[in-house]
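Entry for the shared binder. Reason: the reviewer on the internal report wants the predicted structure included alongside the sequence.
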Amino acid sequence: MFEGLQAIRKELKEAKLENPDKEEIHDGYQLRFVGKDYAKFITGLPTETVLVPDTEWNNQEQNRNSENIFITGNNLDALKHLLNAYVGRIKMIYIDPPYNTGSDGFEYPDKFEFSSDELKVKLGLSEMEVARIKALQGKSSHSAWLTFILPRLILAKYLLAENGIIFISIDDNEQTNLRALCNDISLFGESNFVGQITVASNPRGRDYGGIARMHDYLLVYKKTSEAEINNIRDEDKKFPFEDNMGGFEIRELRNRNIAFTSENRPNLYYPFYINPNKIIDNEFYEISLEKKENWIELYPKESQGYKTVWRWGKEKSKNNLNINILAKKMKDGGYQIIEKYREKNHMARSIWNTKEVNTEKGTLELKNLMGAKVFPFPKPVDMICDIIEMGSNHDSIVLDFFAGSATTAHAVMALNSKDNGHRKYIMVQLDEPTKEDGEARKAGYRTIDQIARDRIKKAAKQLGDFSGFKHYKLAKINDTKILEKIDEFNPNDKTLICDNMVESFSGKNLNTTLKASGMQTLLTTWLVDDGYALTTSVEEKKFGSYTAYTPKESRRLYLIDTGWNSDATKDLLNKIGKNELIVQSIVVYSHSFDFTSLTELKNNLKSVLSNDIKLIERF
């Protein structure tokens, strides 16, 4: 099992170049900024939040079995919660973080939880260096933005599958810094840089120091060399040619990349033989791979002094002779080997300048759907569909932890509707207040996450999508007296009379309006921390009058509520002994157990049962 934040702390501490270059190390070539060490430090810190399920919403028919997730709260905490359950499972991530333009409202938001003395010890910094780091709070400098984004990208990397891909929208303000950051060996590394797409998002342009800026960027990185970018399907594509198999366009079979030559790709260098007296399909000539009398021999022609090669190997060419590959006569009297290309897709280009990427289109789409202009400059759905198509498969999980108005969730549903896919989404959005005098507030939306969730509902209805989603809210206990009780709890105190500390985690004691019970909150938080997806089904198990919980098809049991007694212990042992219950570990919320009941349970598990069952106490 993945060791979570502890493993990340260890890796960041021990990260070294596999083949360090002494000159580079001596010169110190790297992206350096105030807060870099602090950013790495907080990446490995555990979150103090719990995951509160929106039970009223999640229990509705269309959401009960949904595999889509929406989390309201700080995305750094959300990523930490997701880590154990989703490490290596996310095929594609798309994010549109704040651009740090100076007018987009970005200020470094993460609170410094440590005193200056603690930071000096933990990070080995001087008093002046600590002061500079703490000065980032509320700032919008380059250092503040990089300190903000780095921990989130580190966690994102761990969540990505080995063949996973991340797409990041950004503009000129931080594009250079972001690319340098992603190129860092401890993040994605320069070798995993796929490309940078220039997106003409605003044809009319915005004033940018005397230049009308018309574009943003889309940075694309893969996690490892295993990842591949998919072509984009074009449903409206028209073919210039047609035969009895359908429409096609022609592409030269010769590989125009002179990096591939007869010397380094000898298997792709071989001759075709052309029959100049037999025409197929009006203008295409019969070809063969075997030498024939009076047929014309044709190798890939030279380019810049290099012997180029074909794009296909000989076996593939043999299987497509005179079906999908033929010869075409050129104006100069020579011949060219061509492929009949029939697929309705194309490789993504490095410049996107169609109306499909225009932010005005995204704004109009959202306004028509929601009835008002409730969110500024949302990305167009078709643009995000193209990105998802490039980076995902039909059954992938797509993550967006800067969800905004949830264009990504909308696009996942739209693309699934188009190609019968089964992609799932995980959206994370802070409950950031809308502007008091803005269109969103007038329309009844007090926070941006409300806009996002309502958009998903409306888009699903429009698309006929019934996949639903589960909603969770990140929250903290807001009562200091309860926190003191939890901290002071001593499970070895035989005279202790337990309060019901489970209800400390109910909605009324947390900074949320959700009505989940403390048991539901603790169970949800522990399940995902133990590696179970947020979509995992949970079954109730009765032991006497006590109710315990187990993830479906697992061998772990959770005892959270109060009320455990000797009868419950006997019933548990009886069910295990009769093989009615197969369990390998039991998680106990020690606050809910008196000393006698917990001791009895421990002793019986050790002495009565021959099989080894691990008891895990949590406080």
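Summary line for the report: The chain is about 30% helix and 20% strand.
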